[in-house]
Amino acid sequence: MQTNLLKALGDDTRLRILRLLLIQPFCVTEIMHLLDLTQTNTSKQLGKLKKVGVIETHRKDGFTYYLWSTRFQSEEMEWTKAITKMLNASPNFSVDRERTQTYLDGNYSCKDLMVDDTLLRQLEEFK
Fold first, then answer.
1. DSSP for 87-110, written as a single string
2. 3-state SS assignment for residue 38
3. Which pLDDT score, from 0 to 100, does residue 31 have?
4. What separation in angstroms does the CA of 18 have from each of 1, 61, 88, 126?
């Protein structure tokens, strides 16, 4: 498992996703807009993280949300601590943080992204 986990962590996009999921669970639409990714790439990267057991999903209001796996956190506490420490120490995610903070300040939801492009225009300002 460690080799596959290290491979999964060896990608900047997957690290950006994990950093985002440290904040709270997000749906694919939220992740792709907050990190300025395509839907295909977002789903592909989430699949790789899910395959190694770092993240899991749950359904709410018709949407699938991704979050850190509670099983991984309890069974792989040392890995969880090391990954979290590494992600928190990285200074490379300032634009991601700004975009995410704008989203969180607006109290938006996954459904909001589907029906209102006001937020999407706000997030475009961070490019």
1. HHH--TTHHHHHHHHHHHHTT--H
2. coil
3. 95
4. 18, 23, 11, 20
With contact defined as beta carbons under 8 Å apart, do 31 and 37 qualify? yes
> Quick check: 39 and 32 in contact, CB under 8 A?
yes
Domains contained in the chain, CATH given: 2-124 (1.10.10.10)
- Based on its alpha-carbon atoms, the radius of gyration of the chain, rounded to whole angstroms, reads 14
Q: Supply the pTM of this predicted model.
A: 0.86
Pairing of strands 26-27, 63-68: antiparallel
Give the position of tokens 């839907």.
Answer: 39
Q: What is the mean pLDDT of residues 73-97?
A: 83
The SS3 of residue 58 is strand
